[in-house]
């Protein structure tokens, strides 16, 4: 699973390639380093003889399975701050930048949790990762049908932002709008709530199905 710049981080892999040139992704670079680089001999010896402890991918929060809940709570709190920024008349950053950070904040936790859920051999880690992945995914589905933030984004796309923007900003903003529209933002409130409920059900059933295919 790869991190995307849109809210559908758990659905559509193609959007990452479409907007990858928009910025260099440097967040959580230690995840990539864990796969692409060998640990130094000094660090390995230090860990072996001095008892230094690190969490998964070098994150101290993930020394224990419960660390996933801390990552989730931090991501949710940051998301609330960013949503308030989107809705605030005193916003000073580009709208697309705030949406991008909101997406990244949630997706980097959800993607990591989903990877650990599938690949970690310890049941407690896999379970905590599953709970985190489902929780963040449910929040993503709610945001995909949030009329307030959609209306703010649409206003910026149609009328211009308070900050100067370029063609790439406009392109990415339109991708975000498309994500909303594909998730039924045009439906009435009751219908949108049903969409969220159905997607939440799919997330739970899909997670259960995958867990049984991996551990029959």
UniProtKB/TrEMBL annotation:
InterPro entries, per database record: Pept_M3A_M3B
GO molecular function: metalloendopeptidase activity
A single cellular component GO annotation: mitochondrion
Annotated protein name in UniProt: Mitochondrial intermediate peptidase
Species this chain originates from: Stegodyphus mimosarum (African social velvet spider)
PANTHER family in the cross-refs: MITOCHONDRIAL INTERMEDIATE PEPTIDASE, PROTEASE M3 THIMET OLIGOPEPTIDASE-RELATED
UniProt superkingdom: Eukaryota
GO biological-process terms attached to the record: peptide metabolic process; protein processing involved in protein targeting to mitochondrion
């Amino acid at each position: 699973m790869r991190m995307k710049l849109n809210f559908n981080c758990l659905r559509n892999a193609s959007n990452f390639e479409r907007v990858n040139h928009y910025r260099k992704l440097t967040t959580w670079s230690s995840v990539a380093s864990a796969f692409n680089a060998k640990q130094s001999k000094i660090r390995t010896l230090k860990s072996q003889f001095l008892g230094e402890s690190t969490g998964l991918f070098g994150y101290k929060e993930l020394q224990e399975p419960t660390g996933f809940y801390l990552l989730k709570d931090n991501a949710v709190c940051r998301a609330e701050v960013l949503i308030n920024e989107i809705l605030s008349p005193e916003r000073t950053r580009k709208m697309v930048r705030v949406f991008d950070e909101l997406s990244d904040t949630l997706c980097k936790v959800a993607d990591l949790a989903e990877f650990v859920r599938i690949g970690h051999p310890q049941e407690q880690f896999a379970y905590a990762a599953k709970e985190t992945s489902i929780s963040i995914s449910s929040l993503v589905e709610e945001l995909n049908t949030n009329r307030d933030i959609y209306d703010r984004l649409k206003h910026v796309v149609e009328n211009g932002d308070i900050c100067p923007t370029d063609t790439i900003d406009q392109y990415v903003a339109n991708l975000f709008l498309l994500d909303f529209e594909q998730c039924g933002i045009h439906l009435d409130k009751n219908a949108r709530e049903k969409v969220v409920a159905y997607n939440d059900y799919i997330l739970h059933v899909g997670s259960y199905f995958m867990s049984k295919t991996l551990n029959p």
